[in-house]
Request: fold
Amino acid sequence: MIVETTSLSRTVLAVLICVASGQVALAGDLPAIKASDKNKVTSCATPGRLMAFLKVRNDKLDPRFDTIATEYMRHGEELGMRWDYAFFQMIVETGSLKFGGDVKPAQNNFAGLGATGNGERGESFKDVTTGVRAHLEHLAMYGGDKIANPVAERTRKVQEWGVLTEWQKTIKGPMTFAQLAKKWAPPARKYGQEIESVAENFADGTCKSVDPRPELVAAARASLMEAASVEAPKTDLTKRPAKTETAAAEPPKSLGTDLAKRAVEDARTEGTGQRSSLGAAALAKQAGSAPAAAKPTEKPTEKPSETVALLKPAKPDLPDAAADKPPGKGATSKASVTAAAKATKPTAAGGGCNVFTASYGGSKAMIIKATVGDSVNYTVLDVNEGAETREADAYIQAYAPGGKPVGEFKSQTAALDKAFELCPEN
Reply:
């Protein structure tokens, strides 16, 4: 029977350790391979922190691997994976990218795909991002996905030969990294425990520190935004429907809730598991240059709802110099200047108003108000709890000069509802 194996040198070492210690240990607390609402990538696992963690383990890291964590997030979110644990597995497989076994750094083979021992080096990939994609696709296959046109020849063969089919039928519930470990490297009985140990070291250390490179989150999601923009329908999905006699008879609906549901449905259809950009490519192109200088506008006449806390216009304090980096100039499906909605209405100054969304990946949301020419922009910005002020300030510096936070919410849905109260079409 054909089974998945890792590189010979690492496997033999793990077996010798097990024999010498008399231990046969398997990790029991590793998460499912596929991400879900109940199995999310931990919020502190950002590319910036993961790269800092990796560099502690390898202080001579090859510069071409400097943003490999960005690639894990980029492809991991697209495939709906627990890419943080895939990153930890990569650390185990490559010895923190020091390699040293059959697989060589130039191969960009971060999971030992096809490296079955006896000097067999396995597959080679043209660049870092392709190698990361190959690793994550192979994991997705373990999780039960059918990979069309996989990057790795190994993935194609395992699928065509049905190597995992019967074994996968024996697994009850979602496939976990612990279950994967038994098949991926059967001789190395501590393989799952090694992954778990790396994850625990990260959680106990770098996970608790300030993200030194927060802009990498936006960079990771840039390609998803570009893909969503190309496939977006020409119609404006976020405009409120015109009032008709039939519509008037129906009970009012929450626009924020509708937008959030539509984004989730689009994501499921695309297979990404992430909220879509709701199809705005124009603002993504705008993101390459700073917005026009802000002009004063009239304060909205609507009173804030009970769910919004108005904030005083003040420049937030930044914890350190590394924290003031913007979310990045690449637009994303969920981040860094994606236009989730655009509604126009003449203002007292003769301009219009717009509603956009942007994100640093957090579950909370803020509304950032900024004036560009004669228009007022309201951006619903997803922020991480505990970093709200820092991330809002970074966004304002990069994309909304002169802007200010005008509301803080527990969810993007609530923030969108309020944004459309401030910027209605009718």
